[in-house]
Amino acid sequence: MQSSVVRITTQSGIALIEIDNPPVNATSHAVREGLLAAVAQAAGDSAVEAIVIAAAGRTFVAGADIKEQGKPSQPPILPDVCNAIENCPKPVVAAIHGTALGGGFELTLAAHTRIATADARVGLPEVNLGIIPGAGGTQRAPRLCGVPAAIDLVTNGKPLPAPRAQALGLIDRIAKDDLRAEATSYARELIGKPIRRTGALPVPDFDHVAAEQQVAAVEKKARGQISPGKAGRAVLMSAELPIAEGLARERAIYSELVSSDQAAALRHVFFAERQTAKVPGLDDVSPRTVATIGIAGAGTMGSGIAVACLDAGYRVIAVEQNEAAAQAGEKRIASLYDRAIRSKRISEADKAERLSRLTLAVDRAAFAPADLVIEAVFDDLPVKQELFKSLDTIVRPDAVLATNTSYLDPDEIAAVTAHPERVVGMHFFSPAHVMRLLEVVNAARTAPDVLATALAVGKKLRKLSIVSGVCEGFIGNRIYAMYRKQCEYMLEDGALPQDVDAALEAYGLPMGPFAVNDLSGLDIAWARRKRLAPTRDPRERYVAIPDKLCEMGRLGQKTGAGWYRYADGKRTIDADVTALIEAASKEKEISRRQISRAEIQARVLATMVNEGAKILAEGIALRASDIDLVLINGYGYPAWRGGPMFEAGRMGLDKVLSKVEQLAERDGFGWEPAPLLVELARAGKTFAELPAKA
Ligand code: T1G
After folding, report:
1. Distance between CA atoms of residues 39 and 191, nearest Å
2. 256 vs 68, 197, 216, 632, CA distance in Å?
3. From the CA of 520, how far away is ligand 1's center (Å)?
């Protein structure tokens, strides 16, 4: 039997079943059919005494075919294949290289034993797709690694390195050299021995109360996402039910979730992430080589960027204005590594190795060997222009200059250099060594290979790099500024900060806008409002409450008070702020009214979508899904909602448009519905149907 994606060859009594379905051997319908037939053939073939299942290409099976999810499933389904493997009368060895994820790992759990390369990674990341393992993962894994470890595995969705999986009992051997050869001899060893069927193993004893608390903590942390809790509870079920019943219940939960809105949203996010690297005009453009990165400024952002670059293997030259600042920067970087050591993410040796690639200096001449310089100095135009002008004379002509500005115009920075084509924006998010999002700003004169270089560096930093055009605040901060404005309008209309924050935290955001403002400091936005004041259109509705708070010295947590008061770091509602807000309404003769959570959430979504539609129409973002990813990865928008543009599409753009029209009616200038939104809503279309910007 041969199928286009599953091959079987038998040699000296060992049948090798090889899956070959590029790019990641997903268990598509054809693979499932091919596997089932191959196992049946091997089981029935008297020349076969044992079986090895392996995969061709760069990885073992990276899971079920996500493109098939949400559509009617075609038999055989993956549980059928797993059961056939488990019940095979001949020993089955799974040989794992690259990744064995989701259904791919479940295949191996159904095998009678597992051998993996040392650099392989295994896991059950289904929760990241809004589902739970649906082919035995929640029932077989705990039988090998115990319930607490299995709960971790299925709820955090993170893959495990093979040695760690072996320590947990999920992998039996680590291949020393040739995986296939060692898997074959391992299979030969098992011939004639009793077969160890995972499903027949008992679930090891465990502390039920602790495990229940573990799952309850997962549910709390999920902030509205359903799959993590469901996955944890399914593992608990494995200790209560016989395997067959446990498998059936697991599949039922999986089937319910796979057609849910949350799963559709998370699939959107999965494929959206894979689109970000597809930038029109860069297909055949090679990035410039970058080995040494210069970082101007080793403050909070600069030191975070330095750590991200050192973690990725680059040489780093960080330059500060003076000795004291350089020493403070060095201390900041070292303390970030000490924290990573304390949380066991790296070792002392890792820290030493990374710091050995770091040079701190106070003379900009130190930047001379840099292939790329990223500036993270004070967000002030003359300061950045002066720096870029001097860098022009220090670094090689082919070196790339990147600005980490969050609001200034990269074109104005590039304009003072002799080679504006080598200037690009690389907008990191704080803390830069943690936050995954990187806005790569394609300035007016940025050369294609310079853009490609910034994207390549972003990929090596393991960042989700999203290309943005030039506008005030790029994609994220531009939408966030409108979002904050709308939330401030709601204060004048009748809400209080705690109402707005509670409504948006219930919506799934980690923190509401006023609590975030207190955390990051009210002075940053204040400085920006003051910078924009001379050009602000008098027709625009303006809320002066945050200015008043700043004038009172209430800059947020760092001053002990902002929108809230912070006693011993604890956030408390402040009657003075309530009074200030009520007075502001009175001053504008606005009669305050009850604003429901639903209205708060709807006004916020409408605001984000309307601004997103403007950004799309202006070509600032390449595609709507990029906007979703920026809000999800930079501003805490719940991924299980898919991002504002996706969610609006699910709701129907006509509904969102009518909300935007209400905003325009009440808030007037600057809130007009975006023509693109009107056009799509009238046509009954969604943003996903728009072609990517050419
Ligand atoms: N199904 C379909 N396509 C997939 C896929 C999958 N499972 N995984 C990757 N691709 C595509 C991807 O879209 C891209 O396509 C190309 O492969 C390369 O991927 C019953 C139901 C394996 C770590 O969640 O995490 O099993 O853009 O760019 O960076 O319990 O892909 O080139 O056209 O990401 O090297 C569970 C998902 C499924 C793992 C490789 N599995 N994949 O990363 O390459 S649910 C997962 C990944 C499940 C069962 C349930 C990563 C990777 P294109 P890539 P990479």
Report:
1. 16
2. 15, 28, 21, 25
3. 36
Instruction: Give me ligand 1 centre to Cα 122, in Å.
Output: 13
Which amino acid, residue 289? T
Residue 67 CA to residue 46 CA, distance in Å, equals: 38
CA angle 511, 222, 595 (to 5 degrees): 45
Residues in a beta bridge with 428? 438
Report residues of the chain scoring pLDDT below 50: none
CB atoms within 10 A of CB 129: 24
Helical H segments across 277-322, by residue range: 300-311
Which residue's CA lies nearest to atom 10 of ligand 1? Answer: 24
Other beta carbons within 10 angstroms of residue 652's beta carbon come to 13
Structure tokens at 369: 């060997």
Q: How far is the CA of 631 from the centre of ligand 1 (A)?
A: 22
Give the pLDDT score at 315: 98
Atom of ligand 1 nearest to the CA of 133: 30
Residues acting as catalytic residues: 106, 126
- The three-class DSSP label of residue 562 is coil
Per-residue pLDDT reduced to its tens digit, 417-444: 999 999 999 999 999 999 999 999 999 9
Place of tokens 């997962």: 218
The residues near 217 (Cβ < 8 Å, ≥ 6 apart) are none
Helix (H/G/I), strand (E/B), else coil: 658: helix
- CB-based contacts of 497: which residues, under 8 Å, 6+ apart? 491, 512, 514, 515, 563, 564, 573, 577, 581
Given this model, what pLDDT does residue 123 score?
98
Strand pairing partners for 50?
A: 14
Sign of CA dihedral 268, 270, 272, 275: negative
pLDDT for res 569: 84
**Do residues 13 and 49 make contact, with C-beta atoms less than 8 angstroms apart?**
yes
pLDDT tens-digit series, residues 108-156? 999 999 999 999 999 999 999 999 999 999 999 999 999 999 999 999 9
Pocket test for ligand 1, best of 5, 19, 21, 24 (most atoms within 8 A of CB): 24
DSSP per residue, 559-597: GTBSSSEEETTEEE--HHHHHHHHHHHHHTTPPP----H
pLDDT of residue 293: 98
Q: Decide if 25 contacts 56 (C-beta within 8 A).
A: yes
In Å, how far from its chain's centre is CA 543? 34
Distance of CA 24 from the midpoint of ligand 1 (Å): 6
Which ligand 1 atom minimizes the distance to the CA of 157? 24
Closest CA to 329 of 359, 353, 349: 359
Q: What is the Cα–Cα distance from 122 to 100, expressed in whole angstroms?
A: 5
Closest residue by CA, ligand 1 atom 53 = 274
**CA 87 → CA 27, 43, 48, 79, 501, distances in Å?**
19, 10, 16, 12, 54
pLDDT at residue 694, as a whole number = 64
CA dist 361 and 435 (Å) reads 26
Question: What is the average pLDDT score of the chain?
Answer: 97
Q: Left (φ > 0), alpha (ψ -120 to 50) or beta: where does 597 sit?
A: alpha
